[in-house]
Design goal:
The complex is a heterodimer of chains A (683) and B (569). Helices cover 50% and strands 15% of the residues of chain A. Chain A is built from 22 helices and 22 strands. In chain A, the strands form 4 sheets. A 7-stranded mixed sheet of chain A has the order 10-22-21-20-11-18-19, with helices on both faces. A 6-stranded antiparallel sheet of chain A has the order 2-1-3-9-4-7, with no helix packed on it. A 6-stranded antiparallel sheet of chain A has the order 12-17-16-15-14-13, sandwiched between helices. In chain A, α4 (67-104) runs parallel beside α21. The longest helix of chain A is centred in the last third of the chain and has 39 residues, at 557-595. In chain B, 64% of the residues lie in helices and 3% in strands. Chain B is built from 19 helices and 6 strands. The longest helix of chain B has 32 residues, at 537-568. The chains are: A alpha+beta (683), B mainly alpha (569). At the A-B interface, α7, α10, α20 and α22 of A face α14, α15, α17 and α19 of B.
């Protein structure tokens, strides 16, 4: 497993899905044979009808043997097998991940506070266990005492350890992860067998897969089409007898199987499983398929500013000199003051000084770094030559300068206000030397919108999705950033209650809302949202409230989740259209084969000029079976999705899968006919 | 003027008239069925006056039925009202036919046989107006006026009411109320059908359609023979026969009879009458859902399909085979020379596309391709533009199916007019699509598989099959036109076709009203750039294609053995 190492990727480019092995047909076919049990097939009415047809045609082939009869029976069984294999392939892809997860579940012993041992399987919610360095955490829970670094790679694939501590938003630990240092006391929150890992295993294996609302609706439409075609063929026989063209049962079964929507019927569950799998590949776990579907319908995206829209931290964008100081002097002082400052802001000052003023890093022997504290609200450096450089919040630095009777140039106030107004943060830079202090200038820190975000938001707008930025900043700052990133709306100085209220307001207008969150106070909003993506770094409460968990804790992924949801529905719709469009060619193959003997005029319908009636019917059946195999990769991958307006997407997919679905089988059946007609007894 | 030019001109005239009328008529219907603001009735005459948006004459009806006209119904109640009303209508009409010989104005007719009476009762209540009997020799004037003509009005009213209920389902949100059936059906008659039918009847009388209570006269023909000419209240019944897309003729020869369709322009006027309400209802739909473009899209699909069908039928009829026919200009068998080929094709197309079933020429005598096309028109499910009301609700259900598949292709849970199409909605729509094919194909299969069914066939081979297929298609789709060549007044056909008509009418109505209830209860999703636009040409084309594909895939095999085998022979 590989995953992005950076918790907060700088680029907004879609995260690379984990690489996938090629489709493993071997185990899939074994699975397909196991799935031939009709009790399981009843759930898929279309495949079940093919199964019944296969049984009948086999009996007919035995009682009245012929090459044609056996070939039809064989290919009908293959059709069922291919349909089963499609599902098995999709399920197989989750197996590898499930196996890794199972290893994580192997903890057997837990240590209670009094030092006694209990089997992990006996842990109940509310029990407290002690976990020390090197031990595996026996179950899901919250840290109630202590702090530790934890290796969560078993679940997230992320090798860098994370900090878990009691209280706050980083208290949740997951069973199966390993404590690397220190000692923590964990209060268990889940019952055995219902832990996060257990749920993950069930999800990736598709074992607990519930069919989603849209899948059910589509299944109903397909069932109804199946019934129509059953009636069409059952009533065709009396009409054929009346016309003096009685058909063999084998031919009628072949016609039914060709007409009913086998392609989509066979691939429907594979599409659903693959949709979930595509999320898993991106390290997102959806707790239900319903949530994945809802993601495609989302109208409003609530995005946290920090980490999603902007880089996690503010960055220096310019040095403004005040008083007698020159800009170069400010840059030089700012760099010196920040060389030892390991905060992102400090590093960004060094970077700016280098990029804009060509100042290289210097070795500062015997300089004393003054770190930032909440009391001083300043940081800086004391140089060997006696100079003291300080940077920090305007008020703190001004107080420091005034305390040494230093002058404050009148324009400082204007510069500071100007930067604030533009949505930035002003850092004042001052120097004290030989008992006198003075303000040198102001460092302008600003939120940097991630590269590519504006384009992605424009895409979302074209897809009809409104974006709302959530931030604790004041309204003015928020608006400035929103305008730069191309966000539609902002919720400034947002409290959790505000978030919840916003979601309810949107929903009352019939909109579906998606959001991300990690804190306990996000839980109500996560639960209220139609798609709530909890960060894996977040609290248990947040993870319980959301219906998806992002193991990479990357809020930007919300956009990808929406796209995967859409892609899932598009794949279903496109293959349904394709499947139904195929029927036209099959009629043109089978009807003349059935009736041209009695009504020679009907041979005019044999536009493909198929070589014989048997060959025509067999070719249609073979095409019908092979197209399932051919489309399995598409079903697993999902049809190509490019963000566009609904009409553009409809036009494209109709052309590709509607018109393509009409034309392709004419070509395919003709080619198969050329091969099939070589079989003795068919031509 | 050449006959080609004349045929173009009459189509152009018809289209122009429909375009001109559909706006005011559609808007008027929207007003009639939108309770507030209540349309204020004219101050004259006295019996129109009434308070609260109801006309006085309507209040009388409500009082007689015993309903509170100001309370709306939930969908099960609305549905029960439709079904109860229809059941009572069937019983009344059956009884009236059985006892007509003891009632006044019996015109010397005997009581109608039970089988035929049941079939006719169902037929007229379901707006099918299939006639297994010969009008002028079976029904007295009282049955014609108090029974058949009344059903012509109310069965059309029921169709409109159900369509309006479905439109309300789309237009409303978050409510369990669909309106009041009794108010809807009453207003459909008092404010729409009665005034229009009266106007139309006057025009028809001016055009030479008879209107009297005479029991007929004996006339001496030019050749000196004596002929009995039955008279009756024809014009009054003829008007609503077309306007309500009923189609049950006063005479057996229907609109081909010189007293029912005396001249070419009267026949063209009849075509206008049978098309005018179905083509105006989409406008009403657009108005009521607050987006006229949606209505325009629906009418666009209807008009597109109708135009294509008319063009194909006219072409098929004009290129009829054989030197003699070509010399005459087209197929002329079974057609009235005073109408001519093009007008016959126009009437035939319009009557089968609208569930009317009136005829001014005999479809049995059409060329095989022409016959197949009028048959296929009905197989479309009577949606282009379909019967009054039933055409709109049929097309809207197909639009739901089209939106479902297309909506998936744009990556959203499909929604039509802001209504999500989930499991329940799709169950109802899927079953709707299922009903008629099952009835048509099962009926046809049973008929050709049994000796009783086969014994009524006057033709053998493909043409015989076409006749049976036509009968069941016509009955199940509530069209009522006959291919002839089939002696349908037998116990088997009276029963089987009666069942086909009843199920073909009421099963879809049950599903539509239930669907309306589901839709009205939903909220409304907002329209965004990600929503599938259902008012653009792309969707119009898609919906047209869905209609054709559903029909094509269902009926292709049956058509292949019937008219297609005949056409390609």
């Amino acid at each position: 497993m590989t995953a992005a190492l950076d918790r907060r990727p700088v680029s907004a480019a879609p995260t690379e899905p984990r690489p996938r092995a090629a489709i493993e047909w071997g185990p899939a076919l074994a699975g397909a044979v196991r799935k031939l049990d009709p009790r399981g097939l009843v759930r898929q009415p279309v495949v079940f009808v093919v199964w019944v047809g296969s049984v009948f045609s086999t009996v007919l082939a035995i009682t009245d043997p012929s090459v044609f009869g056996w070939l039809i029976a064989g290919w009908l069984w293959l059709t069922v097998l291919f349909a089963n294999a499609a599902e098995a392939v999709a399920e197989g892809r989750g197996k590898a991940q499930a196996d890794t997860l199972r290893k994580a579940r192997q903890t057997t012993v837990a240590y209670l506070l009094d030092g006694s041992e209990v089997p992990a399987a006996d842990l109940r919610p509310g029990m407290r266990v002690v976990v020390v360095a090197g031990q595996v955490i026996p179950g899901d829970g919250d840290v109630v005492e202590g702090i530790a670094s934890v290796d969560e790679s078993a679940i997230t694939g992320e090798s860098a350890p994370v900090i878990r501590e009691s209280g706050g938003d980083r208290s949740a630990v997951t069973g199966g992860t390993t404590v690397l240092s220190d000692r923590i006391v964990v209060e268990i929150t889940s019952k055995p067998g219902e832990t996060f890992v257990d749920r993950m295993i069930a999800l990736v294996e598709g074992a607990s897969r519930q069919r989603t609302p849209n899948e059910i609706a589509l299944n109903i439409l397909l069932s109804s089409l199946t019934i129509v075609f059953l009636i069409v063929v059952i009533t065709l026989q009396p009409l054929a007898i009346y016309s003096g063209a009685e058909q063999s049962l084998t031919t009628l079964i072949a016609l039914v199987v060709c007409l009913i929507p086998t392609t989509i019927g066979a691939l429907l569950s594979a599409i659903g499983i693959a949709g979930m799998d595509r999320l898993v590949q991106r390290n997102v776990l959806a707790m239900s398929g319903r949530a994945v579907e809802a993601a495609g319908d989302v109208n409003t995206l609530l995005l946290d500013k920090t980490g999603t829209i902007t880089l996690g931290n503010r960055q220096a964008s310019e040095f403004v000199a005040v008083g007698a100081a020159s800009e170069a002097e400010v840059a030089d002082a700012a760099q010196l003051a920040s060389l030892a400052d390991e905060t992102p802001e400090g590093r960004s000052i060094v970077v700016l000084a280098k990029e804009r003023y060509g100042l290289r890093g210097r070795e500062l022997d015997s300089a004393v770094f003054v770190p930032f504290t909440a009391q001083t609200r300043m940081s800086g450096v004391d140089l060997p030559d006696g100079r003291q450089l300080r940077k920090g919040a305007a008020g703190a630095v001004l107080a420091w300068v005034r305390a040494q009777d230093g002058p404050v140039p009148p324009e400082v106030g204007d510069v500071v206000d100007g930067i604030s107004a533009a949505g930035g943060t002003p850092l004042l830079l001052a120097v004290a030397h030989g008992g006198s202090a003075r303000v040198l200038g102001v460092i302008h820190l600003k939120d940097v919108v991630k590269e590519g975000m504006a384009e992605r938001f424009a895409e979302l707008r074209r897809m009809g999705i409104r974006t709302v930025m959530i931030t604790g900043d004041n309204e003015r700052t928020a608006r400035a950033i929103a305008a730069e990133a191309g966000i539609d709306d902002v919720l400034a100085e947002a409290t959790p209650e505000d978030k919840l209220a916003l979601i309810q307001r949107e929903q009352s207008g019939g909109r579906l809302v998606a959001m991300t969150g990690d804190g306990t106070n996000d839980a109500p909003a996560l639960a209220q949202a139609d798609v709530g993506v909890a960060m894996n770094t977040g609290t248990t409460a947040a993870k319980e409230a959301g219906n998806m968990v992002d193991l990479d804790s990357d809020p930007t992924k919300l956009i990808e989740i929406v796209e995967i949801g859409k892609q899932l529905l598009i794949t279903r719709g496109s293959l349904t259209t394709f499947s139904i469009a195929n029927d036209l060619a099959k009629y043109f193959a089978i009807l003349p084969a059935m009736f041209a003997g009695v009504f020679p005029g009907l041979d005019a319908l044999n536009v493909m000029r198929l070589s014989s009636p048997e060959s025509a019917i067999l070719s249609a059946v073979v095409f019908n079976a092979l197209i399932i195999v051919a489309l399995v990769p598409l079903a697993l991958r999902g049809v190509k999705y490019r963000p566009a307006s609904a009409s553009a997407m409809l036009r494209r997919n109709l052309l590709l899968y509607g018109v393509g679905g009409v034309v392709l089988p004419f070509v395919g059946i003709k080619i198969i006919d050329l091969l099939v007609s070589l079989i003795p007894g068919i031509a | 003027m050449s006959s080609t030019a004349a045929s173009w001109l009459q189509v152009a005239l018809l289209v122009a008239a429909l375009v001109a009328v559909h706006k005011p008529l559609g808007d008027w219907m929207a007003r009639v069925f939108t309770t507030d603001p209540a349309p204020q009735p004219p101050k004259w005459p006295f019996w129109w006056r009434g308070g609260g948006g109801h006309w006085r004459v309507e209040r009388l009806v409500y009082r007689a039925v015993g309903v509170d006209a100001d309370s709306e119904q939930r969908w099960p109640v609305y549905l029960r009202s439709v079904l109860a009303f229809s059941l009572v209508s069937v019983l009344f009409l059956y009884l009236l036919q059985r006892v007509q010989q003891w009632l006044p104005l019996d015109n010397g007719m005997a009581g109608v046989e039970p089988g035929s009476a049941w079939n006719t009762a169902i037929s007229f209540v379901t707006n099918t107006n299939w006639q297994g009997y010969s009008g002028e020799s079976t029904m007295g004037h009282l049955v014609q006026m108090a029974g058949l003509a009344v059903q012509n009005f109310v069965s059309a009213g029921v169709g409109i009411a159900v369509a309006i209920a479905l439109v309300r389902g789309f237009a409303r949100s978050g409510t369990d109320r669909l309106g009041n059936f009794w108010v809807d059906v009453t207003r459909a008659i008092t404010r729409l059908l009665l005034p229009l039918a009266t106007l139309a009847a006057v025009v028809l009388v001016l055009g030479g359609v008879v209107q009297n209570l005479s029991s007929g006269t004996d006339a001496t023909t030019l050749a000196g023979a004596t002929q009995f000419l039955p008279g009756g209240p024809v014009a009054s019944q003829e008007a609503i026969k077309e306007l309500g897309t009923n189609g049950g003729g006063f005479y057996n020869a229907n609109s081909a009879h010189p007293f029912e369709g005396p001249s070419a322009w009267v026949s063209l006027f009849q075509v206008f009458l049978l098309l005018v309400i179905p083509f105006s209802l989409p406008r009403t739909f657009g108005r009521m859902v607050g987006d006229r473009r949606q209505g325009l899209a629906i009418v666009g699909v209807m008009a597109g399909l109708a135009t294509a069908s008319l063009a194909l039928t006219s072409w098929a009829q004009a290129r009829a085979g054989g030197a003699a026919l070509q010399l005459a200009g087209a197929a002329t068998e079974g057609q009235e020379v005073r109408f001519g080929g093009p007008l016959s094709a126009l009437f035939g197309t319009a009557t089968t596309l609208t569930s009317t079933g009136a005829v001014n020429s005999m479809h049995d005598s059409y060329t095989p391709t022409g016959g197949m096309l009028v048959l296929a028109n009905m197989m479309l499910g009577e949606v282009a533009p379909g019967g009054v009301g039933s055409g709109l609700y049929g097309m809207l259900v197909l639009a739901v199916v089209a939106v479902f598949v297309a909506g998936l292709m744009v990556g959203r849970t499909p929604e039509y007019l802001g209504k999500k199409l989930g499991r329940r909605e799709m169950t109802l729509a899927s079953l709707y699509v299922l009903v008629t094919p099952v009835l048509v194909l099962t009926g046809t299969a049973v008929a050709v598989a049994t000796d009783t069914g086969l014994s009524s066939l006057l033709n053998s081979g493909s043409h015989g099959l076409s006749e049976v297929l036509y009968a069941f298609t016509s009955a199940s789709n509530n069209n009522g036109s006959a291919f002839a060549g089939l002696s349908a007044n037998t116990p088997f056909y009276n029963t089987a076709l009666g069942l086909a008509m009843a199920f073909g009418r009421f099963l879809p109505i049950v599903l539509v009203v239930a669907l309306a209830g589901r839709l009205a209860a939903q909220g409304r999703a907002p329209v965004t750039a990600g929503t599938l636009p259902t008012h653009q040409p792309l969707f119009v084309g898609l919906l047209g294609a869905v209609v054709l594909v559903v029909v094509g895939l269902t009926y292709f095999p049956a058509l292949a053995l019937g008219p297609l085998a005949e056409a390609l022979a």
